[in-house]
From TrEMBL:
GO terms for molecular function: magnesium ion binding; monooxygenase activity; ribulose-bisphosphate carboxylase activity. It is found in: Plastid. InterPro entries: RuBisCO, RuBisCo_large_chain_AS, RuBisCO_lsu_C, RuBisCO_lsu_C_sf. GO terms for biological process: reductive pentose-phosphate cycle. The keyword Lyase applies. The keyword Plastid applies. PROSITE patterns: RUBISCO_LARGE (PS00157). This is ribulose-bisphosphate carboxylase. The lineage of its organism: Eukaryota, Viridiplantae, Streptophyta, Embryophyta, Tracheophyta. It catalyses: D-ribulose 1,5-bisphosphate + O2 = 2-phosphoglycolate + (2R)-3-phosphoglycerate + 2 H(+); 2 (2R)-3-phosphoglycerate + 2 H(+) = D-ribulose 1,5-bisphosphate + CO2 + H2O. The gene is rbcL. One of its GO terms (cellular component) is plastid. It is an enzyme of class 4 (lyase). Keywords: Calvin cycle, Carbon dioxide fixation, Chloroplast, Lyase, Monooxygenase, Oxidoreductase, Plastid. Residues 2-79 form the Ribulose bisphosphate carboxylase large subunit C-terminal domain.
Length: 79
């Protein structure tokens, strides 16, 4: 693995890959987490990173976070 594998997956070449880490521990709801993912991807970022382990917070269940994130990715890819 390495940068070339990631570039191949994203089909992005000739420029730096841009990403960000979203911090749901700060109280972000699952729905707003999905909105942040969507806005990041539509705004030109190549990827986002979830700052949490695969676990749930009292204010945001992991499964809900996953579903809103998947919806955001599919929506951004379709536009």
């Amino acid at each position: 693995h390495g940068i070339q594998v990631e570039r191949d997956k994203l089909n992005k070449y000739g420029r730096p890959l841009l990403g960000c880490t979203i911090k749901p521990k700060l109280g972000l709801s699952a729905k707003n987490y999905g909105r942040a993912v969507y806005e990041c991807l539509r705004g030109g970022l190549d990827f986002t990173k979830d700052d949490e382990n695969v676990n749930s917070q009292p204010f945001m269940r992991w499964r809900d976070r996953f579903l809103f994130c998947a919806e955001a990715i599919y929506k951004a890819q379709a536009e």
